[in-house]
Amino acid sequence: MLPIGDNNPTQHIKKPYVTYGLMIACIGIFVLEAVFGSRFSQQNIYNFAVYPALFTNEAAVPVGEVFPYLRLVSYQFLHGDIWHLAGNMLALWVVGDNVEDALGHARYLAFYLLGGIVAALGQVYFAGAPFTPMIGASGSISALFAAYLLMHPFARFVLLFLFFPITVPAIAFFGIWFAQQVFGIIGPTGSNVAWWAHLGGFAAGFLLTPLLKHKSIPFDPMFAWADVLHRTPTQKRWQRYKRQSHKAREIAERANNVTRMRVTKRPPLSPEQAAFKADYRAYLDSLLSRQEFEARWGEGSISLGRPTHVPGSAPQPWGPAEPADPGSKTAPDDQAAPKPHRRRSVMPSSNRRD
């Protein structure tokens, strides 16, 4: 299946000039090879193609050849035959303009060349064919496939299937294409297709697109998680909420640890302190009257929060008042009768009666 068109127009650039330039360069070099004959073509492959042996120290570089690392760029503009060239140029025509629209002209050119470089390195270190030359723009176009998938997975592709045009979503085409690459790797050996270069270019495009695309171009919601640098306002708010929640949990855990350490360092309460603490809580809950509490723990113990004398010790001059005789109607002259305590009402303050 060959893609021959899509329904996805550009929005930010007038013309994909870099895509046109790359296509002209590939077609122009192929035409020159056809004009000057097969000997010229073979010499170009010998001088500018990628030989894995040159990068794995399995072969020495002959005098007069191009510096090996420049081959990682030059091989992208060479093609073996007319069908190899036509397939790559059609794919570049379909997906190149939209990727250039998202990245801009300069970043798009850098993206294209870097994708081809990573694709060549993937073929060098995983293919296991040290003396087989590698040529073609397939690795760079695989990187464009990844970028197109991240941004426009549901655009409609027009594919040529058995000489009949059909329309399918872009994600369906990329899924079939990816399955072909995997089956090509695990299938029988002997093919001249650089399967590892295709997968390496696709991986490079997946990693480079978030770094090089313009921030105003969003990823499709299906792949929004991959846009690590340019998130939408909703995604930023969600990330900020997650950071704040994580920070709050850390602060609470740290406070709990400090409190736990402080509690472990405190000496145990004495029986008198434990009894005072229980009575103080009972007083706060209105189970004890102020007179009853201060009669036991001393006058002013409520305001101080600690006992002014311990029960059972020497009597204090301000000790509890002697209760009046139940049979008498009046209290002694030296001590007024205590006012009866009324429990605190649990009703709201607006309706409370004291």
Give a written overview of the molecule:
- This protein is mainly alpha-helical.
- The protein has three domains: 2-230, Rhomboid-like (Rhomboid-like fold), CATH 1.20.1540.10; 231-266; 273-313, no CATH class.
- It has 13 helices and three strands; from the N terminus they run βαααααααββαααααα.
- Strands 1-2-3 form a three-stranded antiparallel β-sheet.
- A hairpin with a 2-residue loop joins strand 2 (156-161) and strand 3.
- The longest helix has 33 residues, at 233-265.
- The protein is elongated and about 120 Å long.
Précis, in short:
With 354 residues, the protein is mainly alpha-helical. It contains 13 helices and 3 strands. A 3-stranded antiparallel β-sheet has the order 1-2-3.
Looking at the structure, the CATH topology of the largest domain is Rhomboid-like fold
CATH architecture term of the largest domain: Up-down Bundle
CATH homologous superfamily of the largest domain? Rhomboid-like
From the N-terminal CA to the C-terminal CA, the straight-line distance is: 91 Å
How many domains? The number is 3
Provide the β-strand percentage band: under 5%
Derived from helix and strand composition plus strand pairing, the structural class reads mainly alpha
Can you count the helices? Answer: 13
Largest sheet: 3 strands, antiparallel
Residues in helix, %: 40-55%
Mean pLDDT, nearest integer?
79
Walk across the major sheet and give the strand order: 1-2-3
Counting copies of identical and different chains, the oligomeric state is: single chain
C-alpha-based Rg, rounded: 42 Å
CATH class of the largest domain equals Mainly Alpha
* CA-based shape: elongated
